[in-house]
Amino acid sequence: MGQKITVLIGTMTGTSEFVADEVKATLEAAGHRVTVEPMDDLTESIFETHSTFLICTSTYGQGDVPDNAQAFFSCLEQARPDLSHVQYGLIALGDRTYKTTFCGGGRRFDALLSELGATRLGEPLMHDASSGTLPEDIAVEWVRSWANTWLDREAEVA
Ligand SMILES: Cc1cc2nc3c(=O)[nH]c(=O)nc-3n(C[C@H](O)[C@H](O)[C@H](O)COP(=O)(O)O)c2cc1C
């Protein structure tokens, strides 16, 4: 029984978007209905329509969210919507050579969404670009297990 899931993309050079497309295909093959939304131009209203989200974001600057996610992030910080109906998984892309800011963009979203009352489903995926693994391969494997653990037991959500 499928759920409606929206994957929100924060990216600078397109890696997160590519990962999100692969994740979408995997979730759809498991029977879910998936929409992919780049974070550009999003507001808190994205969280009003349904409850299950995947945040897929990279990290830039000093552990910051990418440019296309900045306005959305600030909007959530200022509007502080009640997200207690929201559940989310987190795919964070980063590079361990940045040491203390590793996957900072994903960590910042995680902290903010929790502060706003949303519930994270499972441990985040934190991909290290210096590991020699392909983020889309790791993400597809992660999301299969994530969906099996957290989604398949749920009833269908409109
Ligand atoms: C200028 C620059 C700054 C970066 N800063 C960080 C960082 O602070 N922490 C981190 O974990 N990764 C950092 N990264 C790595 C990217 O987040 C990583 O390569 C990611 O896979 C890029 O995904 P994207 O193409 O979706 O933006 C940085 C990359 C660049 C080019």
Explain the overall architecture.
By secondary structure, this protein is of the alpha/beta class. It has a single domain, classed as Flavodoxin domain (Rossmann fold, 3-Layer(aba) Sandwich). Helix content is 35%, strand content 21%. The protein contains four helices and six strands. Strands 1, 2, 3, 4, 5 and 6 form a six-stranded parallel β-sheet that branches. The termini are close together. The model has no long low-confidence stretch (mean pLDDT 95). Bound molecules: flavin mononucleotide.
What is the mean pLDDT?
Answer: 95
Characterize the biggest β-sheet.
6 strands, parallel
Radius of gyration: 14 Å
Instruction: Kindly name the structural category.
Output: alpha/beta
Ends distance: 11 Å
Q: What portion of the residues fall into strands of 2 or more residues?
A: 15-25%
User: What ligand molecules are bound, each kind once?
Assistant: flavin mononucleotide
Number of helices: 4
Count up the domains. 1
Assign the CATH class: Alpha Beta
**Tally of extended strands?**
6
Sketch the topology as an H/E string, one letter per element.
EHEEHEHEEH
Portion of residues in helices? 25-40%
Contiguous low-pLDDT stretches (5 residues minimum) are none
Broad shape: globular
